[in-house]
Amino acid sequence: MADLFALSDKILSEGVVTEPVNRINHQLSELDNDIAMVEAFSHSVVFNTDEGLVVFDTSGAQGGKPVVDAIRGWSPEAFHSLVYTHGHLDHVGGSGAFVAAELDAGRRKPNVVCHENVPARFDRYDLTNGYNMVINTRQFGQVAGLELGTKHRFLPEDVARPDATYRDELSMNVGGLDIHLHHAIGETDDHTWAWIPKHKAICAGDFFIWNFPNAGNPQKVQRFPLEWAAAMRAMADQGAEMFLPAHGLPIRGAEQIKLVLEDVAGALETLVADTLAMMNDGARLNEIIHTVSVDSRLLDKPYLRPLYDEPEFVVNNIWRLYGGWYDGNPANLKPAKENELAAEVCRLSGGALVLATRAQELVDAEDFRMACHLIEMAALAEPDNFQIQGIRAEVYAARRSKETSLMAKGIFGYAARQSKVLSEPPK
Fold first, then answer.
1. Among 291, 337, 355, 401, which is most buried by a count of CB atoms within 10 Å?
2. How many helices (H) and strands (E) does the chain have?
């Protein structure tokens, strides 16, 4: 049983990540009397009450049973309630294991509580099942260990549907433990953070992940960075002594918690303000992307490193939220077909291989942005050219190696793997 607070104290006091902060080991650590956390993807935070256990988040489909087993090693009490902080798969996917554990013990299924938008999210997952398989394969390499093209539900069939939902706030009392649920939008439109006054604890879900906020994911639906910042400030003002995120280490101490949350809020607020200022001056999206940034000293902080999402992607999402999909470039309003534009540029430049060769030179000069534009045009113009596909694989593999965020690494790595396969002539 690890002392998770001691680990986070050390990292925050030194300002350097000397220990892993996002750990997936399915081990339970007791945080205080009647409070425990199982480190998984995502964590489950457990409160013991006189009527049984209240669990915030259930991990993903693969993590549900290991998390249940870890909790059972700590307490044999029934799972009274499951609270979804939001409807992402890594928070609800393991719920079937919790329900099965109770039914196998001859007890009633747990009461499932969440925001009223979670069921709509589940419906959207069914509508976009194939797309979610595609984008999560790009981002993480696989989904639940299954290959693309298989008959598979992105949202597992055994995910427990909610028994109770709320709109703005909901106060619960389970076995003498008061729990106050608050709705806020940020990463999602169905997010809940909870205040547990007895323990002066906040369960924060994904509002805090020990990385730069996931407010810009390029493959997912709209995020809300300014409202996210407001939620962080509301939590910061709560006076919590324990801050329990669904990813990463817990944090203790009111002053330390407030400092961390206000840093995150400030970073998001600055991005929004600077992006809107340029939008209001008539700048194009491309100009804003290459102008607006976050102070590198902030990004060096152990809880703001751009290792999952990154500020540039957040700028794109701010534009989408306030400005729509038109990026200010008239040629992109009703564009030509990509392959036809690429073929025309290749004709003007002397051929697709000329562009591909130039892309290799630009990689050597570490101009990865331009290299990717050129190799993509070359591959679109001549998709069956094995040599060009080989160069494309090399360009994107090199680009991936220089990126910090999982989102960028996932997309560039996926492109490299695509072309690696296409670069090999049929046997």
1. 355
2. 16, 13
How far is the first Cα of the chain from the last one, in angstroms, to the nearest whole number?
A: 54
User: Max Cα separation, the chain?
Assistant: 77
- Burial of 128 (C-beta count, 10 Å sphere; 0-12/13-18/19+): middle
How distant is the alpha carbon of residue 109 from its chain centre? Answer: 29
235 touches 204 (CB < 8 A): yes
**Using only C-alpha atoms, what is the Rg of the chain?**
23
Q: Which residues contact 310 (CB under 8 A, 6 or more apart)?
A: 212, 216, 404, 405, 407, 408
User: How much is the mean pLDDT over the chain?
Assistant: 95
Report yes or no: 77 and 48 within 8 Å, Cβ to Cβ.
yes
pLDDT tens digits, 317-357: 999 999 999 999 999 999 999 999 999 999 999 999 999 99
pLDDT digits 0-9 by tens, 259-295: 999 999 999 999 999 999 999 999 999 999 999 999 9
Q: Give the angle subtended at the CA of 140 by the CAs of 337 and 120, to the nearest 5°.
A: 80
Output DSSP code: residue 143. B
Residue 377 CB contacts under 8 Å (≥ 6 apart), including other chains:
341, 342, 345, 346, 352, 355
